[in-house]
Automatic annotation (TrEMBL):
The chain crosses the membrane at residues 21-40, 60-80, 101-121, 133-151, 171-190. The keyword 4Fe-4S does not apply. Pfam families: DUF2243. It comes from Achromobacter spanius. This is DUF2243 domain-containing protein. Keywords: Membrane, Transmembrane, Transmembrane helix.
Amino acid sequence: MKLVRPPDDPTVPHRLRRASFLLGFAMGGFFDGILLHQILQWHHLLSNVQAGPLGSLSAQVAADGVFHAIMYIVAAAGLIELYRARSAATTSPAIRPRWGHFWIGFGVWHIIDALLSHWITGIHRIKMDADNPLVWDLAWFVVFGLVPLLYGWRTRNHRRPPPTGRAGKTFASMLVAGVLAGGVLNLFPLRADADTTVIALRPGASPGAMFQALADTDARVVWADSQGSVWVMTAIPTAKKLRLFASGAMYVSGSVAPAGCSAWLKSGTAS
């Protein structure tokens, strides 16, 4: 016999809080990628790495793709948790909207990014070409890290009249809509040509295999780096993009990987 969890089960609030935190964390990553990587183009993930295996352009493009893929995984986990708590979130008067935990997750993402990426490893700074990068790092840390975290912490258990079912549905709908919007903007960058594709080849892979895989298409080369490891091309059918992984590609924008930060490469090379 299938057991049905009652709507007032005490584990449901924890699940709803966890979902809100995960979605806020993912939104922090999407916000960073959309604003700093795509629109302003102040940095990408490994901007400060200039030597070694990760210093190559192909590795940096692939790293940006991995970064966005991880954010999609976190967002998916949050959406799954929200779906599993949907009954209590929309019907139980004991469940309050957990915006506080969303903002905690958003702030935690920026704090982790500042500590790990800006100051401990130094793989990038907020504004790479700034005369004093630390000023930008600290301002971003406070405005988008500490302020949302403290606001979320103060409001996470704020007592207010229990919401109606409509209020719970509105809360869940806004979370889902916001995260999906962030995900779509990472899949289809605002500053990228929708018809261009960035291809990063694996070390040692030959461009010849890539061109052979595209022989029966109208694909054209827009730009390539001097090592022949990163290519910007147009008119590649979606089905062919997937086949490029078998022809030496380790990253292909707009396939199984989000286009994300590759927008900085496309706009800079195709202009």
